[in-house]
Design a protein that fits this description.
The protein is an all-alpha fold. The protein has 8 helices and no strands.
Amino acid sequence: MSMPPSDSTHVQPLPAVAGTLRAQCPSDLEVEVVALFDEYRARLLGYVSAFGITGHDGEEIVQEVFLSLFCHLRLGKSRRNLRGWVFRVAHNLALKQRRANQRLRDRTEPEAHTEPARDPELNPEEQLLSMHRQQRLLSVVNSLPERDRLCFCLRAEGLQYREIAKILGISLGSVSVSLTRSLARLMRAGEM
């Protein structure tokens, strides 16, 4: 039985092994996108929930945002204001999902509402007062016109007025008026 020549020029890695080795060593881009995912996932879920999107659909949207981000960056496109970019993509995907959910909801019965979380540190009377206050504030936020509600949610995520204007496609003045109006309504509701 003869041994194959020991010349290393004839040895080639198996494609499956080479693929496995690459899979075990993530690229800098993959590491960057995963870090951004970790940083913005919860915030994006909160933002898309302002569209009435919950649970599984919200997770799907967030995953699609970061898949799009990975493709965007891999193609060498702009890295300028990635935070605004991911919120804008989430905004567009949430609008699309909300339309799909509305079509589905039109064919089925309406959803049940969930009860707000309770603070176990409070006594029963304080819990009841806190629950009523949360319900009142939540009803005010939910009753805001959509643009005001979205401005409010984006601002709560720490986005600047200019970023909010770009994401929603409105002027800086509109963002300012919207936030002022929303905060005034919330202040009035909090005083009750």
